[in-house]
Amino acid sequence: MDLLDKDGVRLSVDDAIATVTLTNPAKRNAQSPALWRALAEAGRSLPGSVRVVVLSGEGKSFSAGLDRQAFTPEGFEGEPSFLDLARGSDELLDATIAEYQEAFTWWRRNDIVTIAAVQGHAIGAGFQLALACDLRVVADDVQFAMRETSLGLVPDLGGTQPLVSLVGYARALEICATGRFVHAEEAERTGLANLVVPAAELDHAVRDLTAALVAAPRDAVIETKALLRGAAGRTYDEQRTAERAAQARRLRDLAGLSD
């Protein structure tokens, strides 16, 4: 069942599994403020029954990044151009970028697990969108790149934290500062990709992973995701305390003693 289909984004839901699809293959799923608003709306539209969200892009490329029309004086119809935003107040510029970031932030909610199914190009904003998800299954033709610095910009759509977390500071700096391509073998070796498969097998591999994720009891997955997401910000002893608290909740729930 389709719950949303607008501005290059389609949201379909089948019981516990939702699929968010980028639907503009003619432009290699290039991104725009309208698309970002649609992605944020997709996150708000998820029914409570959804446990796994799969993000994919139609055509040969997952997403070639920001539509270059954003850098023209006229920008997108009905939108302030980036040049106009640059001339505005600091407060307006900050608020606008924060609104754009909303499309990239909901994917790590504790109550869902998100999978990016990535083929072909995932450039700039496309790379950051793949990084927004919990897991990445990629085709063997994948080409990740962070090209913002080559445009005189910085990655500002939430991608820097997960990139550093996955590959470390030094490699993240090198990837961002050079704008070079990261191909499938390196993506798997460095942790950017959970799994690399031939392009023809991408959908099948994602279905298998999705089935495995929904097979586990939902509350246990939610608690585990919360534990793992918070681990980097805790000391070892703080993490052990968090584990005990989470396990106590699970045991009481299983015993029918939860509030």
Describe the structure.
This protein is an alpha/beta fold and 259 residues long. 44% of the residues lie in helices and 17% in strands. The protein contains ten helices and ten strands. It has helices at residues 33-45, 82-87, 90-105, 125-132, 160-167, 169-178, 184-190, 202-215, 218-231, 236-254, and strands spanning 2-6, 9-14, 17-22, 52-57, 113-118, 121-123, 135-139, 143-145, 182-183, 195-197. The strands form two sheets. It has a seven-stranded mixed beta sheet with strand order 1-2-3-4-5-7-10, sandwiched between helices. The chain has a three-stranded mixed beta sheet with strand order 6-8-9. β2 (9-14) and β3 (17-22) form a beta hairpin. α1 crosses α3, α5 (160-167) packs across α6 and α9 (218-231) packs antiparallel against α10 (236-254). The chain is globular, with a radius of gyration of 19 Å. The two termini are 34 Å apart. The mean pLDDT is 95.
